[in-house]
Design goal:
This protein has two helices and 14 strands. By secondary structure, the chain is mainly beta. The protein folds into two domains: 1-52, no CATH class; 53-267, Porin. The strands form three sheets. Strands 5-7-8-9-10-12-13-14 form an eight-stranded antiparallel β-barrel. Strands 1-2 form a two-stranded antiparallel ribbon. The chain starts with 9 loop residues before the first strand and ends with a strand.
């Protein structure tokens, strides 16, 4: 007796906890059309046609490993804000590049920024003017179909680090990104836009005199201090290949502080 073929099953895969889902056949591959390749191994639930650009919807997936680093636990309110920034991305833009950077050296420029310098656990000099602040910054650039004010991209940034007093701190930024070629293998760039910076409160630190630069949060992020401001970053990029660039960048927080970063940028 000829065996009957079981009906083809389809598996419903939830995309990053959202209520949107799509169906992927468990047994049959499409006869025509572009081949599929996995960004993550099977079971991860994310795939795209070979050669297709990374879309804005997929960028949060690529950032998940960064935001899940155990030492960089981000408050849930900040994750919600980042999701809101992603949702606000214009529909005409597409993800063009991803970047990872880490702060290497932080230099305090004014005396009031290192009055407690001798208490800084990772100071590189006696007074605490030069320190290390371990952390990680992740960002992605969206190429604009029509440049705005000369900016060819929108950049969305999320950073998390340990500050001078080893308190968990971070920032979110969204703004325009400008870039220029400087020779065949070097590029200059900067981004500029509104930012939210935050840190675990210093109120219980011995000898700390609150200068009111940060606002103490009560409901939004209990136990944290925060500030809204407009800022940016200057970068020098070295082209290694059509896809990869090395990045050296500076947050020019003049006249208070300068933070130096090193990282990589991957273009698609």
């Amino acid at each position: 007796m000829e065996s009957q073929r079981k009906p083809e099953h389809k598996k419903n895969i939830r995309f990053l906890g959202s209520w949107r889902s799509f169906n992927r056949s468990r047994t049959a591959a499409p006869a025509e059309g572009p081949s599929r390749r996995w960004i993550f191994p099977p079971g991860g639930g994310v795939f795209r046609p070979a050669g297709a650009p990374v879309t804005a919807m997929m960028v949060p997936v690529l950032m998940v490993p960064v935001l899940l680093v155990p030492v960089l636990l981000v408050p849930v309110q900040i994750v919600a804000l980042l999701a809101a920034l992603l949702a606000a991305a214009p529909g005409s833009a597409r993800a063009d590049a991803l970047g990872l950077e880490t702060p290497v050296i932080t230099i305090h420029l004014r005396r009031e920024t290192y009055e407690l310098g001798r208490q800084y656990p990772r100071r590189l000099d006696r007074e605490g003017r030069v320190i290390l602040m371990p952390g990680l910054e992740a960002y992605y650039d969206q190429r604009l179909e029509t440049p705005r004010l000369g900016a060819g991209h929108l950049r969305y940034v999320a950073g998390w680090y340990r500050d001078s007093m080893n308190k968990p701190s971070g920032y979110l930024t969204a703004g325009g990104h400008w870039s220029w070629d400087w020779g065949e293998r070097t590029r200059l760039g900067f981004y500029f836009g509104p930012s939210l910076i935050f840190r675990h409160s210093w109120k219980n630190i011995e000898n700390y005199d609150d200068d009111r630069f940060y606002k103490q949060s009560r409901k939004f992020m209990p136990g944290y201090q925060y500030k809204l401001y407009v800022g940016g970053k200057v970068e020098l990029r070295r082209v290694f290949s059509a896809a990869w660039e090395g990045v050296y960048s500076i947050v020019p927080g003049i006249p208070y502080v300068m933070v130096h970063y090193l990282g990589v940028r991957r273009q698609f």
